[in-house]
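Quick start: what a row looks like.
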Amino acid sequence: MSVPGFPPRHPLGLPPGSVRAVLALMIAGLFWTVLILAERNPAVEVPLFLYFLTGMVLLFFGSHGYTIGSHMNAGSPLHLPRGSIRFLLLVGAIGVFAWMYYKDPTRIQEIVTPKPEQLQQWPQLLLTTVGGYAVGYLIGRGPWRRTSSFQDLLAWVSLMAMIGLVVETVWIVFINPSLEVGMSLHTWEAALTAIVSFYFGARS
């Protein structure tokens, strides 16, 4: 249990928002990587689940001043100067899209527009995103939210999300392009979306 009179322990013992910052950077980094690969290779498609996870990046921005910030008395995410993560996300996004525009301004819309066959996954991803976030939001407001055991659970969930994003990155960047016929991991991507959404909901 957390000790009365002391601030609650946050997942992995880091300042509030640190895990969400890492996840936001991983999501954005994967998105940018896929965009660059798609610009170079027309056969590469942006997985639909990344659009849903981008919503979690926007939630990270919106959490500042509420569950992330100096008012939490625990420092800024990852002990970095205030606004560092948001600056990296904004600069990274601007840089990638500026580079794509420089290479071929006519292809940007084609790359970022989901293909008709991808939209078949839309209902599943919407359900896992909203459902995962809603469940995490409700559980994160229970009477156990300040206990050490609950914080340990969130730490495990955060590690699962990070590992899942690493696996997905390796698959998209290295494994799938080497296959003669590319494979789609719709179920895995939906599960990963649910885990990440759950964590963001629990920490909102």
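That is the whole record. The chain is about 60% helix and 0% strand. Residues 23 and 162 are 7 Å apart (CA to CA).
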